[in-house]
Amino acid sequence: MRVRILSLFLLAALSAASVPAESRRVTMSEAVDLALRDNALLKIARLKVRESDAKRRAARSDYFPKLSNESQLWHTLNRQEVVVPAGALGVYSGVGLIPKSPIRIEQGGDNLLLTGTTLGQPLTQLLKIRQGHRIAQLDEALASNDVKKTENEIALKVHEIYFAVLISQRQRRALELQVSAAEEKLRDSQRAVQTGNVLEVAEIGSRANLLERRHALLALENQISDLTVEFNDMLGLPLDTDVELVPPPPADASPASIEECMKIALAESTEVRAAQQTVEKARSAVIAARTDYIPELSLFAEHIYQSGVPLLARNNGILGLKMTWNIFDFGKRGDVVDERKALLGQAEENLRRLRNRVLVDVEKGYRKVERSRQMMEVAGEALVLRREAERLSSDQLETGLVVLAAHKENAAALAKAEADALAAQLGFQLAQAELERTMGRTAR
Fold it and tell me: Are 236 and 39 in contact (CB under 8 A)?
């Protein structure tokens, strides 16, 4: 029985292991869309926007009247009463004292219910409420700006990993050809040693070269696996998904002028926009601190109901104004205003710093795009030469002018030149994506 159960477990394990991983073909634009839709960091950022929106709506409700109720139920240990002394109403001839003896009048029962329902509308407080609502609006705008910033960062990260996988796959092809060439060269060295044409050290050198190539290939395979897992996690795909990445078309090699890029960056940069919103928030905080000097004046209407005192009306209504004024606080309000002014100065200085920083980053990014374009052109010229060399090697192999190992080395060199050309092309596109991110845009 135990053997049968163990066999079933082994069969289930083998069946699970034989299930192939999901395969999916993905283009660059699809990868960016998936990441922007399913990435966990973006979901958190969007939930923060919802949180800020709820806070803004809560701050807005302070503009409107508040209806509240306060009720109290009392139980007295000693019942209240009014005593009318004898003769309190006078002494008359022929009648005597009125009243003739003290009269005790009880004031209700042992229990007293007192409830008041108040409708209050703030008046002068509206100045401070307006600044609080403005600050809540800016907090929501900052949260939305964080979403945009996260989108830009994630889109750039997708480009980086996408291009790294494509380049690594092309480099793997070159390394596989280098391994094949090293194996052929080792066989030639072994035959030469056997015939006595070369010393054994030549074979040792060829074997060491082969092992180096195999080690580099294994390291590259491990790098591709790590990049693929990270790529799947960023896109919200199962980690074992076998993704087939489609190489993107060549990018436009004529970007906008650097002046135009700087203008766009100052207008759309998420860092500059966040700094501007922080300045506005600090300015509203200063105004809110100054309103503490103004007395708080509220209009209210109240309905009072009591049960337990017969001499008082059960229902009564009140309409009036209520003022609260903090006349003296040992300079606390002035210190708060000074604190808010200091924060405003910090925010304004940070805004100037970020504006300059963005312009510097745009200039650096623009130069990087230009250098990447030149490197792409050089790599393309090298690829043309390697293709010609490989064609001549193929012709010479057919005529017996070169050995197979030399031809495989030329083929490996061509594959490496193709990988370098792809790396240069994708490096140019990545530099453009980085410049787009610096300008506050989402790279696609």
Answer: yes
Q: Looking at per-residue confidence, does 102 or 51 come out higher?
A: 51
How far apart CA 174 and CA 217 sit, in angstroms, is 9
Give the number of other Cβ atoms within 10 Å of residue 371's Cβ. 13
The pTM of this model reads: 0.78
Which sign does the torsion angle of CA 138, 139, 142, 144 carry?
negative
Residue position matching structure tokens 């007395």:
295
Per-residue pLDDT at 3: 43
Q: How far apart are CA 327 and CA 226, in angstroms?
A: 67
Partners of 82 in beta bridges: 105
Mean pLDDT on 219-241: 91
DSSP letters spanning 30-42: HHHHHHHHH-HHH
Q: Residue 2 has what pLDDT?
A: 46
Say if residues 75 and 307 touch (Cβ distance below 8 Å). no
Q: How far is CA 62 from the centre of its chain?
A: 30
Helix (H, G, I), strand (E, B) or coil at 413: helix
- Assigned token pair, 382: 């090298």
Q: Report d(CA 398, CA 1) in Å as an integer.
A: 67
Over range 16-43, report the average pLDDT. 78
Q: Residue 271, exposed/middle/buried by CB under 10 A (0-12, 13-18, 19+)? A: buried
Q: What is the mean pLDDT of the chain?
A: 87
Q: How many CA atoms lie within 13 Å of 442's alpha carbon, on the beta-carbon side? A: 18
